[in-house]
Each structure stands twice: as structure tokens, then as C-alpha cells.
């Protein structure tokens, strides 16, 4: 009986040796690849968490500097977060916040630099659109109308399109183009939510130009 079992065990060992001889290298490399991928994923998770925590801490410093109008600290902390964590939303938020402070402190050049950075580098289209709107406003103040129009005609998410159209209407009025302004104001009015307070402001602009957005909407609905 014992010899029979020994024979079966030997056959199983032989089969196992044959199996590993044929497939052992492949299985080993597959395991290495799987374990390597898992280790890389865990490392990336750890790195991402660390990045988020550090960028959040730097953003807090930017925010404190902005609230206290500590301009040297704002300049340093902003440069730091953009240098180390440029791809994070915290860096983009910090640049937008700093731009507002710079504008309030009559540092228009610095404000435009931060807004341009966000519009060019931000990974979030919403942040890009917001930066373009604010940058266009600064350019309009400087009478750089062509540059402002480039910002306002860039591709943006649908939610920002009415705001861009409204600002284009303002730009048309400054350039003495009331008919074009009416068209842009009507596009803005049509794109805004019916109960939006901003929509009433656009309606006032249209009324001042002798245009009725309700009438245009009724005509379009019959087409």
C-alpha cells in the first residue's frame, strides 16, 4: 500500500515538475508584473495623498496671505505652490485668488499673468473659462479690445457660454456696434436660466437698445 502511494506521489511530483518546467517562467513573470503594478498603484496612491495634503497646506498659506493683504507672503506662497504643485486644483485656485488681490492692489500686470497662467495651464475647463472672463474684463479696462475678444470667443463649457456672450455684448457697445451687441445679449439671455437674477440684467441691457428678448424667443419657437 505504501509503495502504491509513493508511486502516486512520485507521478504527481513528476507532473508538477513538468508543469513548472513548461509554465513556470511565464507564471513567474505574470506574478512579477501583477505585483509590480500593485506596488506602483499603491505608491501612486501614497504620492497623490501626500501631494494633495502638501498643496492644500500651501493653499491655506496663500489664502491667509490674501485675507491679510500680506503681499510678500502671497508672492512667495503663490510661486511655491505653482512651482511644486502646478497640476493641482489648489494651484489653480490660488492663482485665481491671487489675481483678485493683485487687481485690488493695482497690480494689473501680475493679475493678468495669473489669469493667463490659469487659462493656459489649468486642467479644469471651468477654471479656464473663469480666468478668461476675468482676464477679458481687465483687458477691456485697458482698452485692449482685440485681445479681450480673443479671450471671450475661446471654446468654453456650455455653462459659461451665456456669460461670454454677455461680455461680448458689452465689448460691442464699447466699440460702437449696437446691432452686434443686441445679438450677443440675446444669446446670453437665451442661455441663462429663466429664474437667474443675471438674466434680468441682460434684459435691461436689451431694453436699453430697444430689443425684446421675449419677442425673439417667441419667433424662434415658431420656426
Q: Roughly how many Å is the radius of gyration?
A: 31 Å
Apparent shape = elongated
Number of strands: 0
Which residues sit in consecutive blocks of at least 5 with pLDDT less than 50?
38-45, 218-222
The largest sheet, given as strand count, sense and whether it forms a barrel, is: none
The overall average pLDDT, rounded, is: 81
Helices and strands: which structural class? mainly alpha
First-residue to last-residue Cα separation: 95 Å
Which H/E pattern describes the elements?
HHHHHHHHHH
| Total count of helical runs of at least 4 residues | 10
Portion of residues within helices: over 70%
Which percent range describes the beta-strand content?
under 5%
What does this molecule look like?
- The protein is built from ten helices and no strands.
- The chain is mostly helical and about 220 residues long.
- The longest helix has about 70 residues, at about 1-70.
Amino acid at each position: 500500500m505504501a509503495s502504491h502511494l509513493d508511486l502516486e506521489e512520485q507521478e504527481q511530483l513528476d507532473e508538477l515538475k513538468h508543469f513548472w518546467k513548461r509554465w513556470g517562467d511565464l507564471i513567474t513573470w505574470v506574478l512579477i508584473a501583477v505585483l509590480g503594478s500593485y506596488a506602483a498603484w499603491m505608491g501612486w496612491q501614497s504620492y497623490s495623498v501626500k501631494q494633495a495634503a502638501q498643496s492644500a497646506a500651501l493653499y491655506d498659506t496663500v489664502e491667509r496671505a490674501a485675507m491679510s493683504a500680506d503681499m510678500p507672503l502671497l508672492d512667495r506662497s503663490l510661486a511655491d505652490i505653482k512651482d511644486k504643485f502646478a497640476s493641482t486644483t489648489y494651484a489653480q485656485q490660488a492663482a485665481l485668488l491671487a489675481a483678485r488681490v493683485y487687481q485690488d492692489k493695482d497690480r494689473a500686470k501680475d493679475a493678468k499673468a495669473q489669469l493667463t497662467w490659469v487659462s493656459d495651464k489649468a486642467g479644469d475647463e471651468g477654471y479656464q473659462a473663469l480666468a478668461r472672463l476675468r482676464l477679458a474684463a481687465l483687458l477691456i479696462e485697458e482698452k485692449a479690445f482685440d485681445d479681450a475678444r480673443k479671450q471671450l470667443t475661446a471654446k468654453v463649457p456650455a455653462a459659461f457660454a451665456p456669460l461670454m456672450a454677455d461680455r461680448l455684448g458689452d465689448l460691442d457697445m464699447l466699440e460702437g456696434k449696437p446691432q452686434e451687441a443686441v445679438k450677443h445679449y440675446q444669446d446670453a439671455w437665451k442661455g441663462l436660466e429663466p429664474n437667474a437674477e443675471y438674466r434680468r440684467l441682460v434684459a435691461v441691457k436689451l431694453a436699453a437698445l430697444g430689443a425684446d428678448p421675449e419677442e425673439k424667443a417667441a419667433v424662434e419657437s415658431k420656426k
